[in-house]
Amino acid sequence: MKEPRTSESSRSLIHVRDTRTWTGKKLHLEYYLVSCAVMGGCAESYGVEVKASSESGTDYAGIENITMTGTKILELIDLLAAGTVTPTGLADVVQDWL
Asked: What does pTM read for this prediction?
């Protein structure tokens, strides 16, 4: 699994959730805050990453440059974790949130 990130971005683990799939398999979810310097380092843009690990492997999804407001991206990450959103559903949930 290669996780797409630019060399100028960094990520911080915000939430971890352990749940089960609809078939009963264990699923470990990690939610990350991604920050990326923009405008020559004068500002930051924020995104999210979701990583899901299970017996059958690891899945990943990330979206950069969602907002430039730190509190807003943390609210989104809280919602993602509360709803145990998986990498598969990340794009749809973020699109609805916007």
From this structure: 0.85
